[in-house]
Amino acid sequence: MRLGINIGDTNSHAVLMKDTAILGDIQTTTTPDITAGFTSMLQTLMTKTNVDPAQIKAITIGTSHFTRAIIERQNLTRVAVIRLGLPATRAILPFTDWPPDLLEVIKGNAYLAHGGNEFDGRCIARLQKSEIQEITSRIRDQGIRSIAISSVFSMVNASMEEEAADIVRQIIPEAIITLSHEIGRMGLLERENAAIMNACLCDLANHSIQTIRGALAEMQLDAPLYLSQNDGTSMAACYAERYPVLTFCSINSNAMCGAAFLSGAHEAVVVDMGGKTSKVGVLVGGFPRELAFAGYLGGVRVNIRMPDVFTFNLGTASRVSLDPLRVGPECVTQDLVSCSLIFGGSDLTAIDIAVAAGIKDIGQRSAVANLPPRKVEAAMREMQRMVQQAVNRMRIPTAPIPVVLVGSGSVLLRMRLTGVSDVIRPDYFSVSRAVGAAIGQVGGEIERVFSLTLISRETALQQTREAACLKASEAGAAPGTIKVVEVQETPLNYLPGNTLYVRVKSMGDLLINP
Amino acid sequence: MKRLTCELIPDLIVGSRIIGGGGGGDPYLLQLIAQNVICEYGPVRLLAVDEVPSDALVIAIAIIGGTTVLAEKLPNGEEAIQAVRSLEHYLRRPVTALISIEGAGMNGILPVIPAARLGLPLIDGDFTGRAIPGIHMTLPSIAGIRATPMVIVDSQGSRVILDVQDDETAEILARSTVVDMGGVALIALYPTDGVHLHGTIVEGSVSHMIQIGHALNEVQDNFHDPTLLIRQTTGSDELFRGKVAEVRREWQNSYGYVRGDALIEGGGLYVGQEMSLKFQNEYLLAAVGRRLVITIPDNIIVLEARTGTPIPPEFLVSGMDLVILGLPAVEGWLTQKGLAVIGPRAFGYEVDYHRLVKVSKKSH
C-alpha cells in the first residue's frame, strides 16, 4: 500500500492506494506548523480505512512549502556565492535581476574566482586553491554557512565545482553547499540563481523534513519517505533535503499526473481548481508539458524544469459581488467555513453561488435561497467564462482534446466548455494532487554538453544515459527498475563542428519496504 | 537627434528578438548589461544615416559564435571596448560611430553597450535586416565594403586581427578562431565612412525594432493572440499554424553547421496540410506540401503559438505549437549579387528565391 499526501497552501489531502485502487481519501485545512493538521488527517484516514501502519510500504508527499517560503520571503537562509569563471563572466554579477525584497533576506556576498571550463572541456583558467581559501575565510567571518557554487560549463566538467566545495569544507566544516551542476540547466546565470534558491532553502528543508519524519514515526509509519519533484516524479526525502528547489511546482505537476491517472486521459488540458486560485496545465503523454524556456519563480529567473501552468484567481473562496457583477480576484480573508453564507458567515463567495445555482449541495441551502436567480446565473456564467478563457489560453487549436477538472473548486463549474472534445470530472477529483503524489515514480534528469571531436556521439549518449540512471538511483529508485524514458539531443547553434547538448530523463520504482 | 534611454532597452530587446524570428540568440543577458551601462554612462545618441559625417569612421560591433555558449561563458564586459580600441590602433584613427551588423537577436542590441561606455553615437540602421549566420552575409559586403580589417577579442583578453582579401575568407578564418577561443567572441569590423553607408544599409531599423517592442510590451495582458499583434507591427504575413510532429538534425554543410528540418502538422485553418521547415542556424526555407512558400532572405519568424515567443531552431521539439510568419526581405537583398550571398543556393538548397506565397486556408 502507498500513501500519497498533498500539503498545499490552504488545503491538505491524503489518499491510501493499493496498486491502482484507492482505498480511502481525506482532506483537511493546512495548519501553519504543517504537522498538527497533517497528523490528525493521517490518523483519521488510517482509522477510516482500518489499515495497520505496517502495511504501508511507501509514503510520498507533495508540498508547496518551499515555494511558499520563497514567495513570502520567510524562513530563508542567507547565502554566499562563489562563481568560478574569471577572467570571463564579470559583466553580469551573481544576484543580478533579483527582486530587492528577496535580496534583503538572502543575499550574502558574492565572489568571482578564477576557473570554469570552455564548451569543449578546456579550462578557462585554473582553479586557484589560495583564492578559494581566502574567499571562504571571508564567508566564514560573515557567519554564513550556506554557499552556492557555480562554474562556467559545469555540465561539461563538474570537477571545479567539486574541488572548490572540498576547499570550502576544509575551512567551514559545517558548510551546506549547493553545486550548480546538480540542479540547473545550461545558462550560467539562471543555473546559479537556481543554486542560490536551493541554498537559501537548506535550513528550512532540513527542519521541515525532520518534523515530518518525527510525526510519521509517532504514528508508526516507518515506510520509506519520498517528496514529489517538479516534473511529477518523486525523490527520497534525504535527497529532497539537499535539493529542496526540485519540489517547486510539484503540487501542480501532481494535480496533473493525478488527473491523468484518474481520468485515463494522457493528452488533455487539466484545470485544477482550489480554494483561492485555479491552475491550467497540459498533459502530454500523461506528464505535464514543461515550460520551454527559463521561467520566473518568486520573481527570479531560473531554468529548472517547471510545468507550463497558467494561474488565475478563481476558487471556492473567491469573493462574489452580484451588483455590479464581479467574481474575485480577491478571496475571503479567513477560512471559507467561517465566512461563506452557506456555512453561516456573511460573505458571498463562489461556493455560495454554486449552491444557490443548485449544482452543489453542501452547507445550508436556505442561506442562499434569497439570492436573485438571474444574478446567480450571471455569476455562474462569469465563472464559466473565466475557466473557458484560461483553457483557451493553454489549449492550442490543433486537435480538440478533453479537459479534466480536478480539485475541490471544480464543483463551481457546469460540465460545459467549448472547443474541447470532452469535459471529465473523474472520481476522487478533489484529491487528485495526493493521487499524483502517490503514483509518482522516482525520476532523475541529467544534462551534458560534449565536443564530438573528442568523443563519439554513441559514447556521449551512453555516458549521459548512465549518469541519468545513476541520478535516479541517488534519488531513491530501486536498482534494477531504472529505465531511460526520454533522450533529447541538440547541437549548439552558430558553432561549426560537432558540439552536442544531451538531456536524458530516467525513472525507476520506489524502494518499497519488504 | 534621438536618444536611446534605459527605458527603451526592453522595447529594443523584444523588437530585436522578433526580427530575429528565432535566430541570433536570446538578448536577455545583454539587456541586463545594457541597462546597467546606460544607467551609469547615460543614454546613447541615435544617429540617422543622413547625420553621419562623410569622413566619419564607423565600425560594426558584434558577437560571433554560439549564442548558447555566451549564456554560459558570460562576457567580462571589456571585450567590446578592447575590440574598438584595437581596431582604432590598427587603423590609426579614432572611431566616431558604431553600428549593428545584424538588426536581430543579440546583435540588434549589443553595440548599444560599447556606444554608451565610449560615449559614441549609434547609427539607426543595420547591415542585414534579419538574422544571418556569417559575417560576409551583409548588404555593405555585396556593395563592396570590406569586412576586414577586423579584430576578434575573447573573454580571456586575447586579440586577433584579421586583414584578408575577401569577406568569405574572413568568415572562415574568424569562425575557426572563435571556436579555438571557446566558442564565442566579440568582433569589431567593417570600418567605413558616412559616404559608403548611404544607400547600402537598412535605415531606421533600431527605431523600427523599438516600435515593434513597444507595441508588444504595451499589451501586457496577452489574453488575445499575441502572434496577431506581431504580424501587424512587423507587417508580416501568417504562413502557417500547427504542431511540430518531427525534428531531424544532421551535420552537413560546408561550414560544419547543423542542417535540419521540422515537420509541422497543420492545425486550425490549416488542418490537413503539412509544413516542412528547413533550418541551419536560422530558418531558411518552408514548404507546404510540395509547394515552397518562403525562402531566405525573406524572414521566417517562428513563434510559440500561445505566448508569441520566437523559438530558435535548437529549441524545436515535437509537440510544440507554432505560428509561422513570413516577412519580406529588405530590397537590397533581392539583387543577383545579394541572392548569390544569401539566397537558398548559398545554403546548399537546390532552389531559387521567390517571393513569399500565401498558404490557402480552409474557409469557415
Structure description:
The complex is a heterodimer of chains A (514) and B (364). Chain A has 514 residues and is an alpha/beta fold. Among the domains of chain A are: 73-201, 3-Layer(aba) Sandwich (Dna Topoisomerase Vi A Subunit, Chain: A, domain 2), CATH 3.40.1360; 441-508. Chain A has helices spanning 35-49, 65-72, 100-106, 129-141, 159-171, 188-200, 202-218, 237-242, 250-263, 336-339, 350-356, 373-394, 432-439, 457-474, and strands at residues 2-7, 11-18, 21-29, 58-63, 79-86, 107-114, 146-151, 176-179, 225-228, 234-236, 268-273, 278-284, 287-288, 295-297, 300-302, 310-312, 318-322, 325-331, 403-406, 423-424, 442-451, 483-491, 499-508. In chain A, the strands form six sheets. Chain A has a six-stranded mixed β-sheet, with helices on both faces. In chain A, strands 11, 12, 13, 16, 19 and 20 form a six-stranded mixed β-sheet that branches. In chain A, strand 22 and strand 23 form a beta hairpin. In chain A, helix 4 packs across helix 5 and helix 9 crosses helix 13. The longest helix of chain A is centred in the C-terminal third of the chain and has 22 residues, at 373-394. Chain A is globular, with a radius of gyration of 24 Å. The relative contact order of chain A is 0.12. By secondary structure, chain B is of the alpha+beta class. Chain B folds into two domains: 2-203, CV3147-like fold (3-Layer(aba) Sandwich); 230-347, no CATH class. Chain B has eleven helices and 16 strands. Chain B has helices at residues 9-20, 28-41, 67-70, 79-91, 112-118, 139-142, 167-180, 194-197, 205-218, 226-234, 336-342, and strands at residues 2-4, 44-47, 58-65, 97-100, 122-126, 150-153, 159-162, 184-192, 202-203, 237-251, 258-266, 274-279, 283-288, 291-295, 299-304, 321-327. In chain B, strands 1, 2, 3, 4, 5, 6, 7, 8 and 9 form a nine-stranded mixed β-sheet that branches. In chain B, helix 1 (9-20) packs across helix 9 (205-218), helix 2 packs parallel to helix 5 (112-118) and helix 9 (205-218) packs antiparallel against helix 10 (226-234). The radius of gyration of chain B is 20 Å and the shape is globular. The model of chain B has no long low-confidence stretch (mean pLDDT 91). Chains A and B meet through helix 12 and strand 22 of A and helix 2, helix 3, helix 7 and strand 10 of B.
